[in-house]
Structure formats: C-alpha cells, structure tokens
Amino acid sequence: QVELVESGGGLVQPGGSLRLSCATSEFTLAHYAIGWFRQAPGKEREGVSCISPSEGTSYYSDSVKGRFTISRDNAKNTVYLQMNSLKPEDTGIYYCAARPWRPGSTVEGVCQIGYYYGVDYWGKGIQVTVSS
C-alpha cells in the first residue's frame, strides 16, 4: 500500500509556528498535485492548501490565507506546509494527499474532498494542537 508520511506536528501556543512535511519513498511527488487537509474534532475534513505539480499555482482556504505557505522540495521529494500565526481553530489532524493532475484540473479543485481521478494517496495524518 502506497504511503505518504506526515511529520512536524505537535503542540504550539497561539501565535506560534509549525512546519509540516509530507514525504514518500514510493513515487515522485513532483508528478502529482499535493494537498494538505485537516479535520477538527467533530467536523468534516477540509482542504487547507494545495499546490500544482509544477509548483506554478497554489491555493489556500480563506481561513489560512496569509498565514500558511505550501512549497515543494523536489530534490527531497517532500512538500511542506509552513504554518505561522497559529490559532486555536487551526487545531486538528492534518493529512497530506497526492492527487493526479488532469487537463482542466485546478488547485482549488484538488483541495475539494470530492476530487478523484482513479487514484488518491493519503497519509495517516498528524496532530496539530494550538493551545495555551
């Protein structure tokens, strides 16, 4: 089973920063659109930020725009989510996903839970807790 591995989560105070990483040794992430999703307690999973394969375009949900930055390091086969000015409402389990890029795909579309083109690779998730 293909596996993505998230790392970098933990407990941080409001206003603090964390950098999440998403990596795999099983395929080349640069060939896929990558998304970061989160699920807060009692809520549905939502797309937070996504990036196209070429790193030409990125998308951020309104709740994180201006605070989070998604980026790739293709040499390390890793995608990052830099999270600054964290708020308690950012608390949740964060997942990364590798999703196929097809003609007509948009990064906003990739960040929708319903986006699916035959394959969908997900990590197991990592906890982020923002609390004083």
Write up what this structure looks like.
This protein is mostly beta strands and 132 residues long. Helices cover 3% and strands 42% of the residues. It has one helix at residues 107-110, and strands spanning 5-7, 10-12, 18-23, 33-39, 46-51, 58-60, 68-73, 78-83, 92-99, 121-122, 126-130. Strands 2, 4, 5, 6, 9, 10 and 11 form a 7-stranded mixed beta sheet that branches. A 4-stranded antiparallel beta sheet has the order 1-3-8-7, with no helix packed on it. A hairpin with a 6-residue loop joins strand 4 (33-39) and strand 5 (46-51). The radius of gyration is 14 Å and the shape is globular. The N and C termini lie far apart (38 Å). The mean pLDDT is 95.
Write the topology of this structure:
Blueprint: E1 5-7, E2 10-12, E3 18-23, E4 33-39, E5 46-51, E6 58-60, E7 68-73, E8 78-83, E9 92-99, H1 107-110, E10 121-122, E11 126-130
Parallel strand pairs: 2-11
Antiparallel strand pairs: 1-3, 3-8, 4-5, 4-9, 5-6, 7-8, 9-10, 9-11
- Report low-confidence residues grouped into runs of 5 or more: none
Radius of gyration: 14 Å
C-alpha end-to-end distance: 38 Å
What is the subunit organization of this protein? single chain
Structural class, please? mainly beta
User: Can you tell me the overall shape?
Assistant: globular
Number of strands: 11
Strand content: 35-45%
**Average pLDDT number:** 95
Helix content: under 10%
Q: What's the number of helices?
A: 1
Biggest beta sheet summary: 7 strands, mixed
Helix-strand pattern:
EEEEEEEEEHEE
